[in-house]
Amino acid sequence: MPLPSVLEFAHLLLAGHLNEGGRALDATAGNGYDTRFLAQQVGEGGLVWAFDIQREALDNTAGRLEASGLSHRVRLIADSHVRLTDYINETLDAAVFNFGYLPGGDKNITTRGKDSVTALQAAAGLLRAGGLIAAVVYSGHPAGKEEAQAVASWAQSLPQSDFQVLHYGFTNQKNHPPFLLAVEKRTRHQPKEPLL
Questions:
Q1: Is 10 helix (H, G, I), strand (E, B) or coil?
Q2: Which of 72-102 are b and which e, b meaning 16 or more Cβ less than 10 Å from the residue's Cβ?
Q3: Between the CA atoms of 63, 110, 37 and 58, what dihedral angle is there, to the nearest 10 degrees?
């Protein structure tokens, strides 16, 4: 089996943390692929909150959900993910952040490091024990380098007693390939890593 891409690996991890009735966040709805994936995973009793500041992104996401018969599982929110706690007061099983700009949209409208860290911190505060944040980070555009540094620094600063952080990416690809930061909230009695 070939190594999964960053996005494929993010979805594999998210699927392992979501079940029927789950609660999930897509902090950057974009064209709706992640939102649709989350809506499929949470089942009929589940709920997904999907944020984007661009009307085009929310329209694209709404169309994708409608075509898949999943609209009733998702709340589309036309606001910044910085304010996610204004809309969500439930515990999350999983969250996905796919940073950067809207594919096919205006490349001048991008996520920004400071706001991204604020939103990640808020999402981490809403995670249940054992819950997961999958953050896909792109450093190959002008705002991306600063954002990648800010997000990576945030993840590295998380206390090991409360979170596990995995960094997944391909180191020999050209043109600043994206990388994944998977942040899992520890359970109180999580076993230590076995010695090999």
A1: helix
A2: ebbebbeebbbebeeebeeebbbbbbbbbbb
A3: -20
**Quick one: average pLDDT of 182-196?**
72
Distance CA 14, CA 18 (A): 6
Mean pLDDT computed over 22-30: 96
Residue 68, SS3 per DSSP: helix
Sign of the Cα pseudo-torsion (189, 117, 143, 102, in order): positive
Which single residue is written with the structure tokens 């409608």? 66
Main-chain phi, psi angles of 129, to 5 degrees: -60, 130
Answer yes or no: pTM beyond 0.85: yes
Q: Phi, psi (5° rounding) for residue 32?
A: 90, 5
pLDDT, the chain, mean: 91
Nearest to 120 by CA among 62, 176, 185, 54: 185
CA distances 112 to 9, 100, 115, Å, are 24, 8, 6
